Amino acid sequence: MQSGRLRALAVMSPERSAAFPDAPTFREQGFPNLEVETWYGVFAPAGTPPAVIARINADVNAVLQLPDMRDVLAYQGMVPRGGSPEQFGNMVGKELARWARVVDKAKIKAD
């Protein structure tokens, strides 16, 4: 894209990407329901003590604030968000529900 040989038509995130500021969102292109983001998270086994979860969460949030980490993620077009275990759990629940609807509507079956 930097050479001009490719052009980004749109990004699928709700906001424009800092990595591709000239690329509109699909929402801006007239597709308000076409929104997909890649995300990464840290999971722990059920029954992990709350103190351990709190420590892991604090450490991950601290790392996401490091300038070097933010630079690496920005270069890859990612935005570090961090947050609480509860916020992450809510987001994962919404993602599971969304993709369950997609699978159901498309009649996707596992082989």
Summarize the structure.
It contains three helices and no strands. With 111 residues, the chain is an all-alpha fold. It has two domains: 1-37, no CATH class; 50-106, no CATH class.
- What is the radius of gyration? 17 Å
Overall structural class, as computed from helix and strand content, comes to: mainly alpha
Helix content: 40-55%
What sequence of helices (H) and strands (E) makes up the elements? HHH
Distance between termini?
38 Å
How would you characterize this protein structure?
The protein has 111 residues and is mainly alpha-helical. The protein has two domains: 1-37, no CATH class; 50-106, no CATH class. The chain contains three helices and no strands. The longest helix is centred in the C-terminal third of the chain and has 22 residues, at 85-106. It starts with 49 loop residues before the first helix and ends in a 5-residue tail after the last helix. The mean pLDDT is 93.
Any chance you could write out the topology, listing elements then pairs?
Layout: H1 50-64, H2 67-75, H3 85-106
